[in-house]
Design a protein that fits this description.
Strand content: 15-25%
Oligomer: single chain
Structural class: alpha+beta
Order of helices and strands: HHHHHEEEEH
Number of helices: 6
Number of strands: 4
Strand order of the largest sheet: 1-2-3-4
Largest sheet: 4 strands, antiparallel
Length: 163
């Protein structure tokens, strides 16, 4: 009788002990410099969104570069649209009010739509000021080319300026 009760308990305890012996590979390695967190600098730097594949488009140009040179065949207004780092008021001034605002703590998602074009803007609070700013944005267009996405951004901006 005691063996029937004791045997499953011992097997369970042994399994737990064996699982604790092997650390996951990620925990056993020291952090490299690329994964270390760096404190935010006080100077205003221009950030580019991470490239997640062909479905995202960013039209950010490096400092000193001619924005019109980056848009091959597109208008200069399409190349000048850079949303990274903009605050809520600046974003509303540039693109107008969003079609939808979604709260996703700690951030927000604003969606803009026009025709076959959707712009998803991710806003997150600055650690020091607690004001929301654009961290990333994604353009989805029926014309799934870079030029189509630039035209989509330019169309959204021109519609807001016309109001």
């Amino acid at each position: 009788m005691i063996r029937k009760c004791l045997l499953p308990s011992l097997v369970g305890v042994n399994c737990l002990m064996l699982s604790a012996c092997g650390l996951p590979e990620m925990l056993s390695r020291p952090l490299s410099k690329s994964t270390a967190v760096r404190p935010a600098s006080s100077s205003a730097t221009q950030r580019k969104p991470p490239q997640t594949g062909a479905s995202t488009a960013s039209v950010a140009s490096p400092k000193g570069a001619d924005p019109a040179a980056g848009a091959k065949g597109a208008g200069s207004s399409a190349a000048s649209v850079n949303l990274i780092g903009l605050g809520e008021q600046e974003l509303r001034a540039k693109l107008g009010p969003p079609v939808t605002e979604e709260e996703r703590p700690p951030g927000k998602i604003w969606r803009y739509r026009t025709g076959g074009c959707t712009l998803n803007v991710s806003l997150y609070p600055d650690v020091q000021t607690r004001k929301f700013g654009t961290l990333t944005y994604e353009v989805k267009s029926d014309d799934d080319t870079d030029e189509g996405k630039r035209n989509c951004l330019a169309d959204l901006q021109s519609r807001a300026q016309a109001r």
